[in-house]
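User: I need a structural model of Cell wall protein PhiA from Aspergillus nanangensis for a docking pre-check later this week. Nothing fancy, just the predicted structure tokens so I can convert them on my end. Input:
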Amino acid sequence: MQFKNFLLAASAAVTATALPAGSDSACKAPGGGETAAETFGVVSIHSGSAVQYAPFNAALSSIFAGLSSQNASCARPDEQTATFYIKDGSLYLYDKSATPQQLYVDRSGMGQGKIGYTTGAQPPPRNAEREGWAIDANNHLQFGGSDLIACPNSIDRAWSIWANAGVENPGFNEGCVGIAARVEKTNDPNGCVYTQ
Ligand SMILES: *[C@@H]1O[C@H](CO)[C@@H](O)[C@H](O)[C@H]1NC(C)=O
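Assistant: Understood. Predicted structure tokens for Cell wall protein PhiA:
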């Protein structure tokens, strides 16, 4: 009897010391998932270029930098920048609603590195890849281990944002530049539904 009590006490002590570390990391994940999906905005970095410090926007199922107006439906409508999160290598636009807007990349000969996003159950184009997004050790958003590309003279004088598919000037653009897509984490993300 005494020996059994000792065993119970011993296992309880082990459980007590083991619990805090485990429950700590599990409870801190927002949304209750096992991995915390951190939300972030992105700023373009290419010193000496007009795209320097232009924030990323999402509109018309595409990603831009330096758009003055996204025309999105947002919790804070005055903000004109896009908010992202990465889950399992896939990149999403942040919103509180359950309808996801998920990014894809088309590195085929047709797509040339086109970045777009789908809304809800909308299927991605045939050659689209959805996984391969990551934040590197320098805090830059990359796809397939490569930095992104910005091309000038898109709509409203903004830049269009492309993935690197080995095409220097994708989509028949001119004057494109490689950028570092600097990640700026936020604890207070602006939920938006972006235009399709
Ligand atoms: C936003 O709406 C304005 C006014 O209709 C339009 O001029 C502009 O091109 C739109 N921008 C985008 C990114 O859709």
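Before docking, keep this in mind: The longest strand covers residues 177-186.
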